[in-house]
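I have been asked to look over a protein record a colleague put together. Thanks in advance; the entry in question is below.
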Amino acid sequence: MSGVDAIVRTVLDLYTSFRFSPPQSQFTILAAFVLENATTHHVISLATGSKCLPTTRFPTTGDALLDSHAEVLARRGAMLWLYHELDRMNSLDSSPSQWIELAGPTGKVRLKLHTQLYLYVSTVPCGDASTRLLAASQDPSIAALKDSTTWATLPPGTPSRGRDNYSLSGVLRTKPGRADSPPTTCMSCSDKIARWNVLGIQGALLSRFYEPIYLDCVIIGGVDDATMRGIIAGECERAFWRRIHSISDTDLPGTYAPHTPPIRFTSIPFPHGKEVLTTATNSSNESLCYTADISQSPEVIINGYRRGVAPKHRSRLKFMPRVCKLQLYNRYTTHEASARDLTYFEAKQSNEEYLQAKAALLGSAGPFHGWVTSGATYEGFTRDAAE
């Protein structure tokens, strides 16, 4: 078994151990972040999902998940794991971490040397990476309709909605892909992976404690044909890092640097993928969300909230999803006491080095100018000390 397949098998074994199964007529997407060193590999987060909330239902209190695509939930689970490792490092009773260490020059934490970070996704991520695959695999009548549609020219700095203008490559896209779905301002997973290749997966808040944490490899499932693999590898490379090639090390502060993770493929099928469940017509509304070392039991998310929680209890911290913005912000303020009187939005604006790197990517002269952000409207909440 190859190294890639060994990692994927570990991910799938963990997934099947949870006994989570979408309805037979529904498929889903699986993503996981995996650390590997010379002796072992460790699935630090795992998630399924392909849904996001319409903009009209975005909460302003940080208690619900706006984007429940598998890659995004898995990344949020990885962030929760990074907070947990900080807790361990600061605890006098815990053993040294196998995966993180203090970096002398910066005084921040980093992954240990010779540690690799993999992102596995059971199919090609939505957005720029998968546009050509969709064009090649869709129903001929739909293809003819798309080809005959005249799309409005996109103004500079304007993302395309879903699969509109699907013949264009290298453009920012918002979710969802289906034109009959309610609009949202969540950016596509292709765009977000490209962002992580400049800013790291840790985000603005964790950058206070961690050096940027970058992907070393992206593993894609669901593409078995050798010719199509070659095409998709090129599409993913463009989507994930070639379209940000204008950013160089000199444009970024500190230890930030553009990264170009290789694209690998696996033939191991994901049992609840669209490629396996060929009769499935719809994607599941539910998302599984798991973070290693936090709890043995994963959460199931539906419409941004934990499944089974009554509406009257959703505003209580202990009933919120573990990886929602408010929960993660509470984690942050346990390590950064000066932020306890700040809003989530204000705290994100307080890390100057991260903001400089972000400006190089999303600023007016950056390759991702036009990125849609939540902003203070949806991030103006403060920490919650509720039990």
Remarks:
- DSSP finds eleven helices and 16 strands in the chain.
- The chain has a mean pLDDT of 90.
- Residues 3-379 form one domain.
